[in-house]
Amino acid sequence: MDEQKKKEGINIELSEEVAEGSYSNLAIINHSASEFVLDFIQLMPGVPKAKVKSRIILTPQHAKRLMKALNENVTKFEGQHGQIKDLDSSNNVPINFGGPTAQA
Question: pLDDT tens digits for 24-36?
């Protein structure tokens, strides 16, 4: 049965609204023993208030799979387009909502 599932694949539907996507230039990540919460934020220059544009809640297992998939894709991207330059650490926005220290 698993072999048949692999051949069939997964039928994924993408609505027009979701396909448009949301721009994010900041991510805040918090976690508990049972979940990871990823808040994607749009931070505008000169505006002191930022809005969370999307929140994704993952199990720890799915968070680890996402991390591996992102790592693989960044490696492929850099192989095709060159190394992605990391931003100067002095440009990081210090934000703490009272939970565990977030990383983006």
Answer: 999 999 999 999 9
